[in-house]
Amino acid sequence: MVPQLTWNLIEDVRQALVFPFMVNAFRAGAIVAVLSGLVGWFMVLRRQSFAGHTLAVVGFPGAAGATLIGVSATYGLFAFALVAALLIGLVPSTRGRGYSEESAVTGSIQAFALATGFLFVSLYGGFLSGANALLFGSFLGITAGQVRTLLAVAVVAVVALAVIARPLLFASVDPDVARARGVPVRALSVGFLLLLGSAAAEVSQITGTLLVFALLVVPAATAQMWTTGPARSVVITVALGVTVTWLSLLIAYYSPYPIGFFLTTVAFAIYLLSAFLRHTARRAHSRSVVGAR
Amino acid sequence: MSWSDASGMGLHDLLSHPYMANALLAGIPTAALAGVVGYFMVLRSQVFTGDALGHVAFTGALAALAFGIDARLGLFMSTVAVAGALGLLGNRGRADDVVIGTVFAWILGLGVLALSIYAASPRGTANGAAGVTVLFGSIFGLSFSDAVVASVVAAALLTVMLGVARPLLFASLDEAVAAARGVPVRALGIGFLLVVGGVAAESTQVVGAMLLLGLLAAPAGAAQRLTDRPYPAMALAAGLAVVAMTVGLVGSYLVPKVPPSFAVISVACLIYVITFFVVRRSGGQRPQPPGCRNAQGGTRVA
């Protein structure tokens, strides 16, 4: 029997939750969305979204390599993402000296990581549909064990983020003043990259390594359009992330098309809608100001 | 599948295999083109435009397949159209990375949709690996006519690039002065992006949509570290890309388990990595191991 999406949302959810794999998917989705919302909020603030993308892309050879040697893909994802985060953090910053070279380096690293992943995939053989799942996400077959791993990593990462949140916010908004005040800006930056690596690895397991932007960037970017207050926009980010994930899971369950498409589309639609609303609100505001004169 | 059972696959009869001859025929002009265009992209800080166009190429090719059109048509139409749109809309080459990332994640999502529509269609079930092919290239699968078309297009685009090299260089290095001197900066920028679109479509056939960034960025980055002078750097970028392509294809021919696109990209990245050591260690002016005068490495642009 093919499940049908009806207008009775509660009945739809109930029907989807009959299967343990869907329950796992919803749990994993929520864990991932909360962590990626929190880390992604700082990432957007620090303008490091391409670092996040690179870290996620690096996870692809990690996951493919782990599968090749017969280890769970989850471990490969985390190992590669964290090592890459450390490397990016430790390489001396080239800021101020040639954005152009930095982008050439980043581009080469990304292409090399993807090429290596492809090598592992073709060495493994008969794994081609698996490559699609790694790249574009899949919610089928998430085990209870994986959910526990995701939860453990997320709890550690969120606690760590909570500990460094205040100085990190300071260092992100104004690094020079923060440094003058004795905030360890550099250590914070490396620490944050590690958190970003673990978040990217977690997100990859739902969205695939190529579509991490959908959960890591878009909710945070949307929330920062709505409000500038840090606390409020963090809460909105997390709420948006969970909404996007659960909604996409539900639609994907009832549809023959892959989750990656729904995740990116739902996230992008909310982003566009917010941009449009903000635009019209500003227009109305400026018109009323002009009218009052 | 190792050295031992690769009988009849020695280097001497490399070109007697049609797939290998076709691969070199398509690969070498494409690599030279990617090197030259990549040099300008690094110079103009537009590397991520190349990344973005790779995403577009993926979606374009799969959408064409899903609708039953020739994939190459979809490739060229989508990349050139998006490149033109980027050139017209974004006067700034450096739009907000959050916006770019968001839009292109969505485009990739559309590509995934097209992939699953294609895979479910009767045409697609015969070609289950289409998504992987588009992502990572299939240069050994090119027919002779494919290869001829690819090399003719690459040669034409290369000619265009060489024709506009001088004003484009001027406009890239100092836009304001170039504009004041009457160089059509905006038209050049748009024209360049259109060429980049063509390059993205070409390279997708050779190394795949996800890896074309490596072919664009790595040889160009290496060339910029090795010399400050624009024309030698441009030639060097093209040369290094051709070397990477040739060595990669031959390597993949000798070790069939290694996919060609991986081999090409690794050679390109290896060359780039080597330049970091070369330039750091020594002084001098030559692009070969007795490195570069500029001990800071890289060229200061702008």
Structural overview:
The complex is a heterodimer of chains A (293) and B (302). Chain A is mostly helical. Chain A has one domain: ABC transporter involved in vitamin B12 uptake, BtuC (Orthogonal Bundle). Chain A is 81% helix and 0% strand. Chain A contains 13 helices and no strands. The mean pLDDT of chain A is 85. Chain B is mainly alpha-helical and 302 residues long. Chain B is built from 12 helices and no strands. The termini of chain B are far apart. In chain B, 56% of the residues are buried. At the A-B interface, helix 3, helix 5, helix 6 and helix 13 of A face helix 2, helix 4, helix 6, helix 10 and helix 12 of B.
H/E series of chain B = HHHHHHHHHHHH
Distance between the termini of chain A: 65 Å
Indicate the CATH class of chain A. Answer: Mainly Alpha
Largest interface: A-B, 54 and 60 residues
The helix content of chain A, as a percent range, equals over 70%
Instruction: Let me know the largest β-sheet of chain A.
Output: none
Q: What low-confidence regions of chain B span 5 or more consecutive residues with pLDDT below 50?
A: 1-7, 281-302
CATH architecture of the domain at 18-210 in chain B: Orthogonal Bundle
Summary, kept brief:
The complex is a heterodimer of chains A (293) and B (302). Chain A is mainly alpha-helical and 293 residues long.
Which helices and strands, and how do they pair?
The complex is a heterodimer of chains A (293) and B (302).
Chain A (H helix, E strand, L loop, with lengths): L8 H8 L3 H26 L3 H20 L4 H18 L8 H26 L3 H9 L7 H30 L1 H6 L4 H23 L5 H4 L1 H9 L3 H24 L5 H34 L1
Helix pairs in contact in A: 2-7, 2-9, 2-11, 2-12, 3-4, 3-5, 3-9, 4-9, 7-9, 11-12, 11-13, 12-13
Chain B lengths: L17 H26 L3 H20 L4 H19 L7 H24 L1 H4 L4 H7 L7 H30 L1 H6 L4 H22 L5 H15 L3 H25 L5 H22 L21
Helix pairs in contact in B: 1-7, 1-9, 1-10, 1-11, 2-3, 2-4, 2-6, 2-9, 2-10, 3-9, 7-9, 10-11, 10-12, 11-12
